[in-house]
């Protein structure tokens, strides 16, 4: 986590959060192309924003009204139970997201929510469907988030799962101190709280 100033890096304050195995997104190579999670050093850094249920305006306008002096990208902090069909479409359509930081829901997950990472017809190329993924063979209709499944999306960003309370609290504190308008102001100015991934993935 970084306090992102407009000047040189020598003025920044860094807190390093270790990335454990299995919590960062990875890329898959299926013999013809790569897909999954990918990030480059150029897109690794972004100001931290927190998205709560029902708050999607920032995804559409890149939070420019709050960060008027900043034209870079963002790391979006959100709860896993917010990942639904419409939010995923907004994320994929955005050109200002550097990465996602996913945390566990604070309350019980609604059992009626679509949460399956698989598609409407899991394993569509396995040969078990006589008519491909036709209406008569869709058996994961109520569970899928996207028809083709979350797993096979080319996100073009890194996604990190955070579960350590100390790390989560540090990110929230940094965000609340520097990225939330104070005293009735509609926007914030430098310095900002920002994050930078040190993990870059590619398939082999």
What does this molecule look like?
This protein is an alpha/beta fold and 204 residues long. The chain has a domain at 20-107 and 150-196. The protein contains three helices and eight strands; from the N terminus they run ββββαβαββαβ. It has helices at 57-61, 85-93, 165-178, and strands at residues 2-4, 27-29, 34-36, 45-50, 74-79, 97-103, 158-162, 192-196. The strands form two sheets. A six-stranded mixed beta sheet has the order 1-8-4-5-6-7, with helices on one face. Strands 2-3 form a two-stranded antiparallel sheet. The two termini are 29 Å apart. Mean pLDDT is 77; it is low at 3-10. Belongs to the nicastrin family. Keywords: Glycoprotein, Membrane, Notch signaling pathway, Signal, Transmembrane, Transmembrane helix. It is a single-pass type I membrane protein. Its main location: membrane. Residues 26-203 form the Nicastrin small lobe domain.
Summarize the structure.
It comes from Ancylostoma duodenale. With 204 residues, the protein is an alpha/beta fold.
Q: What descriptors fit this protein?
A:
8 strands, single chain, alpha/beta, about 20% strand, two-stranded antiparallel ribbon, about 200 residues, disordered N terminus
Low-confidence stretches: 3-10
Sequence of secondary-structure elements: EEEEHEHEEHE
Instruction: Give helix % range.
Output: 10-25%
Radius of gyration: 19 Å
Could you give the count of β-strands? 8
Structural class by helix and strand composition: alpha/beta
- How would you sum up the global shape? elongated
Treating each run of at least 4 consecutive H or I residues as one helix, how many helices? 3
Major beta sheet summary: 6 strands, mixed
- End-to-end Cα distance: 29 Å
How large a portion of the residues is in β-strands, by DSSP E?
15-25%
Strand order of the largest sheet: 1-8-4-5-6-7
Estimate the mean pLDDT confidence. Answer: 77
């Amino acid at each position: 986590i970084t306090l992102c100033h407009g000047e040189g890096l020598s003025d920044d304050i860094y807190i390093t959060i270790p990335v454990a195995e299995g919590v960062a997104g990875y890329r898959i190579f299926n013999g013809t192309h790569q897909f999954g999670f990918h990030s480059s050093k150029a897109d690794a850094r972004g100001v931290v924003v927190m998205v709560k249920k029902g708050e999607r305006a920032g995804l559409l306008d890149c939070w420019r009204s709050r960060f008027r002096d900043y034209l870079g990208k963002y790391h979006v902090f959100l709860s896993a139970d917010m990942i639904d069909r419409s939010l995923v479409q907004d994320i994929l359509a955005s050109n200002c997201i550097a990465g996602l930081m996913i945390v566990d829901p604070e309350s019980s997950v609604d059992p009626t929510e679509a949460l399956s990472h698989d598609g409407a017809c899991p394993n569509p190329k396995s040969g078990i469907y006589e008519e491909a993924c036709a209406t008569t063979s869709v058996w994961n209709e109520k569970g899928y988030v996207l028809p083709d499944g979350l797993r096979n999306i080319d996100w073009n960003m890194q996604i990190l799962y955070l579960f350590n309370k100390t790390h989560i609290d540090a990110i929230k504190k940094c965000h609340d101190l520097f990225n939330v308008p104070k005293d009735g102001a509609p926007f914030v100015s430098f310095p900002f709280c920002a994050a930078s991934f040190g993990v870059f993935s590619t398939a082999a």
